[in-house]
Design brief:
Layout: H1 7-20, H2 33-40, H3 44-56, E1 60-63, E2 67-70, H4 87-111, H5 114-131, H6 139-152, H7 156-163, H8 166-179, H9 184-203, H10 207-226
Antiparallel strand pairs: 1-2
């Protein structure tokens, strides 16, 4: 390992080496996150970033309520995809979203028209339906719902700002879905209720409540990724 590697790279290379040399054979379950934290002296966000890299490369697979399993061996020269953001970057994106989307919801409640309400309601219903399909269902509809709120502000700066972080939003949603051990029906109920609270406030024209509910939802989303909370 290179001496100037970050701790994330060091842990990644160590686990990858274990896969390459058979220390973690195909089909084996990796140690749980808390144990990996202790073994490598790393925080949980770092371990989750490493697991996200390995998942993106198809080296491991995460199974709900069970853990991460080695799916294939690989050469030591495998590189991280340029599309995979660091967990620190995703966390920074969440901080940005809390402010950005809170204001989007606020101005959407003030400026929305009937067409906006129809669009938001349609994509909300599609999101609810897709959530019923599988653990990772509804990711595109989730993003579209949030985008429809930005569009309802009728302010292109809000829309452009939100579209600029599309890949990071998708990635954060996907990571949250893969890491959660929450039963599908519980997760679905939580997500539907959070999104409905935002939509209801916008429909009612209650700008302050719309901002509050959106900030609460995005904060909860961040906590689901970084703290493993189910709500």
């Amino acid at each position: 390992m290179q001496k100037n590697s970050t701790l994330t790279d060091t842990v990644y290379e160590a686990i990858l080496a274990g896969v390459v040399d058979g220390g973690f054979p195909v089909g084996a379950r990796l140690p749980p996150e808390w144990e990996l934290c202790e073994n490598y002296g790393a925080s949980r966000p770092i371990i989750r970033e490493v697991l996200a890299r390995l998942r993106a490369q198809g080296i491991i697979e995460s199974r709900k309520g069970s853990g991460s399993y080695v799916m294939r061996r690989t050469g030591a020269t495998v590189q991280m995809s340029e599309d995979i953001a660091s967990m620190a970057e995703i966390e920074a994106c969440y901080d940005f979203r809390i402010s950005l989307e809170g204001e989007c919801a606020y101005f959407a409640a003030l400026n929305r028209n009937d067409n906006d309400l129809d669009a938001m309601t349609t994509v909300f219903e599609a999101f609810c339906s897709a959530l019923s399909d599988n653990k990772r269902g509804g990711i595109n509809d989730d993003f579209r719902f949030h985008l429809s709120i930005a569009e309802a502000t009728h302010n292109p700066f809000f829309v452009n700002a939100f579209q600029s972080i599309k890949s990071r939003v998708h990635m954060a949603i996907d990571i949250s879905r893969q890491l959660t051990a929450t039963p599908l029906n519980v997760r679905r109920r939580t997500l539907v209720n959070e999104h409905r609270s935002v939509l209801d406030a916008i429909v009612a024209g209650n700008a302050a409540k719309a901002r509050r509910e959106m900030r609460r939802h995005v904060t909860n989303s961040r906590n689901r990724v970084f703290k493993g909370e189910s709500h």
